[in-house]
Design brief:
283 residues, 73% helix
């Protein structure tokens, strides 16, 4: 019982620490405004680009809904993946506390999970506001009364678990690098291209499309659009039912978590042998 309480306190401390660091120690309201304006600006930049290129071609509204929904929910990956993976290098080199956290009684997995969940509030708020603003401004076919909320929540929870698992493994791999500055954003950008966030994966070259189909993020994006847009959704997997897509999301999430655990364990052993955890510099 005492050990459980200690782990819970450590988890709460890690979550609060993650929030404070990601917000650069500023006031919650100011950080929330920034977290909302960033994805809104990114979404509308893409919208303007698409409007200029396509004009008023038929089907424009449906594709805009496809585009905006993907960009809105991508904040989960941007904050969760890049924020957590970069945070591990920052804890070591900037704050010089990684070695103390690693050797503390709190389970290191639990600490990293708390750091990852710290991004959740900003991600949820930014996704909701982007969808509301875009729906009103662009007349997107999103009806709040017809959204499949259970499917949306289940898919997002599974995707968040996969993102945090990937970020943990990727972050430990970054500790092996001589200079890992910006690698978190680089990894998130790669996932952005192959996730189906801004275009269907069918437009990718064959090998990239195959790799993308093994990612849980693709099936998460598909479920998001089906739950939000219903019959107006542009489907990347038109032959699959909602249950089939959810099953693929579950399978790929479990496989991703297992692979992430193997990579994390290997990188952990290698970092301990080479003394990378208790370094005081990232260079």
């Amino acid at each position: 019982m005492i050990a459980t309480i200690a782990q819970w306190r450590g988890f709460k401390a890690a979550t609060w620490l993650g929030w404070e660091i990601s917000s650069n120690w500023t006031r919650p309201l100011m950080f929330l405004i920034y977290s909302v304006l960033r994805p809104i600006s990114a979404a509308f930049i893409l919208v303007v680009m698409y409007r200029v290129i396509s004009g008023r071609a038929p089907g424009t509204t449906d594709y805009l809904a496809f585009l905006v929904s993907g960009v809105a929910f991508w904040s989960f990956v941007q904050y969760g993946f890049a924020g957590l993976s970069n945070g591990m290098a920052e804890d070591r080199g900037e704050y010089r506390m990684l070695k103390y956290v690693y050797t503390s009684p709190v389970d290191f997995y639990l600490y990293l999970f708390g750091r990852g969940l710290a991004q959740l509030a900003s991600a949820v708020a930014s996704a909701l506001i982007v969808l509301v603003v875009a729906t009103i401004a662009l007349s997107l076919p999103i009806d709040p009364l017809r959204v499949n909320y259970p499917l949306l929540v289940v898919g997002s929870v599974l995707a968040l678990a996969a993102v945090i698992g990937m970020a943990m493994a990727y972050g430990f791999l970054q500790l092996q690098a001589v200079d890992a500055h910006g690698y978190g954003e680089l990894g998130a950008s790669v996932l952005y291209v192959i996730s189906g966030a801004i275009f269907p994966i069918t437009v990718l070259p064959g090998i990239l499309a195959t790799i993308a189909s093994l990612s849980p993020l693709v099936y998460w994006m598909e479920l998001i659009r089906r739950s939000l847009l219903g019959s107006h959704a542009i489907r990347m997997f038109p032959t699959l039912s909602d249950a089939d897509v959810l099953l693929r999301l579950v399978v790929t999430t479990v496989a991703t978590l297992l692979l992430a655990h193997l990579v994390f364990s290997w990188a952990d052993r290698r970092a301990r042998r080479r003394g990378l955890i208790d370094m005081e510099s990232n260079w």
